[in-house]
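Input (structure):
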């Protein structure tokens, strides 16, 4: 059953535009129409249109469903994070048997600028050699 879901008015115009743009980008990256999204989330197409025009902000329930559908975080949809995925999950990825990305980030945070520059250069060189 489709339903019209009400949203609160806690977001300013700038935040509404950010959310609208993010929703459009996610939909287009996945080659979907507003109708496709509406069917998946059991909403009206006009509701999706209003979200994408920034006329209304999706309520919490819908933000969670959108995040789950697109496999992104709610913070990404709300414009609070540039990362689409949960950084805790990313930090847990193993670089080696003994080191995670989180471990590497902690080590890099303790480096001075010169050490970070050397590391960045090294990463760039390795990245170019893999192309």
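Output (sequence):
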């Amino acid at each position: 059953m489709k339903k019209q879901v009400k949203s609160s008015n806690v977001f300013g115009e700038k935040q509404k535009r950010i959310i609208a743009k993010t929703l459009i980008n996610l939909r287009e990256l996945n080659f979907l129409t507003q109708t496709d999204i509406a069917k998946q989330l059991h909403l009206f197409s006009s509701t999706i249109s209003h979200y994408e025009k920034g006329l209304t902000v999706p309520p919490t329930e819908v933000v969670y469903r959108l995040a789950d559908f697109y496999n992104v975080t709610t913070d990404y949809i709300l414009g609070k994070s540039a990362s689409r995925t949960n950084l805790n999950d990313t930090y847990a990825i193993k670089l080696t048997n003994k080191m995670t990305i989180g471990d590497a980030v902690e080590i890099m945070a303790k480096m001075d600028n010169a050490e970070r520059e050397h590391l960045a250069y090294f990463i760039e060189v390795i990245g170019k050699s893999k192309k």
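Notes: The chain has a mean pLDDT of 85. The chain has eight helices and no strands.
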